[in-house]
Amino acid sequence: MKSRRPKIVVIGGGTGLPVILSNLRDQDVDITAVVTVADDGGSSGIIRHYVNVVPPGDIRNVMVALAEIPGIYKDLFQYRFETTDDFFAGHAIGNLIIAALSEMKGGIFDAVQELSQLMRVNGHIYPAANEPLELHAQFADGTTLRGEAEITAAHKLIKRVWVETSNHHAQPRAAQPVIDAIMDADQIVLGPGSLFTSILPNLMISSVGKAVRESPAEVVYICNIMTQKGETENFTDADHVRVLNEHLGANFIDTVLVNTGKVPDKYIDYQRWDEMSQPVKHDFQGLRSQGCRVISTDFLQLRDNGAFHNGQEVVHELLNLIGQPRFQKDSRG
């Protein structure tokens, strides 16, 4: 009997998600990307404000990572107009196409499925919800803010985050294929990406968080290499996992991938990569006390005076985990 391809669901947003997906694309796995819809910065934020559609930027980058089309088409889809173009300044062509299809199809979910066929996407791309969501945060000092960009810019210690619909009257809901993919998965991957503004907005949709907790799949968290200004300054790897567990009310992370590669002193260009703060410190005992298996190795890729994950090395470890025994769900607190 021919064995089926392993089903891997990757949940997140931002720039880290496409790195993993582009390296998974050519493997013999069934990929589903669940992408945040709470972005409100840059071109995505402007389009969201004027057209009232789900912000398309993260979806655009994921689509390019999984598309099997000639490079010139990808370059065109990613092309961003120069600032001298008054009307289109800063907008990526792909963002405009996704916004147009969203209007044509009456929602982002069906639009992305249509565009996925056109771009020969190897896998499935599911927006976490079919409508734009607002990210809210409560800080340690008791104050609150809404909006991803505003929350990060506040540079305050975040206590918790949650998402609401734009009209604040309905509970955010995920499309059923999102839940089905999570429940049918062999492996659920979180990150890499901004903890509070890329990963948690997906999990704070109650049906998504519930599905991740209850899925029989192994849940793997790819811990960030660098802490992030305005979000996770001074966080250890165990702190990242603690925040995830606290938001979902259970120790639901099975395995954590931790980078041990050293970022050279004075290598990071903090003006160019202004969101990077410092290398994440290790607390292996803190991770194990939360029921995690820890895989620590050199996942570091240094480029352009920044520190990033080596997608090939990360995917190698993810595929190794597919066939391995793991902690049972009912053993987690």
From TrEMBL:
<comment type="similarity">
    <text>Belongs to the gluconeogenesis factor family.</text>
</comment>
<dbReference type="GO" id="GO:0043743">
    <property type="term" value="F:LPPG:FO 2-phospho-L-lactate transferase activity"/>
</dbReference>
<dbReference type="InterPro" id="IPR002882">
    <property type="entry name" value="CofD"/>
</dbReference>
<dbReference type="InterPro" id="IPR010119">
    <property type="entry name" value="Gluconeogen_factor"/>
</dbReference>
<comment type="function">
    <text>Required for morphogenesis under gluconeogenic growth conditions.</text>
</comment>
<dbReference type="GO" id="GO:0005737">
    <property type="term" value="C:cytoplasm"/>
</dbReference>
<keyword id="KW-0963">Cytoplasm</keyword>
<protein>
    <recommendedName>
        <fullName>Putative gluconeogenesis factor</fullName>
    </recommendedName>
</protein>
<dbReference type="Pfam" id="PF01933">
    <property type="entry name" value="CofD"/>
</dbReference>
<dbReference type="GO" id="GO:0008360">
    <property type="term" value="P:regulation of cell shape"/>
</dbReference>
<dbReference type="InterPro" id="IPR038136">
    <property type="entry name" value="CofD-like_dom_sf"/>
</dbReference>
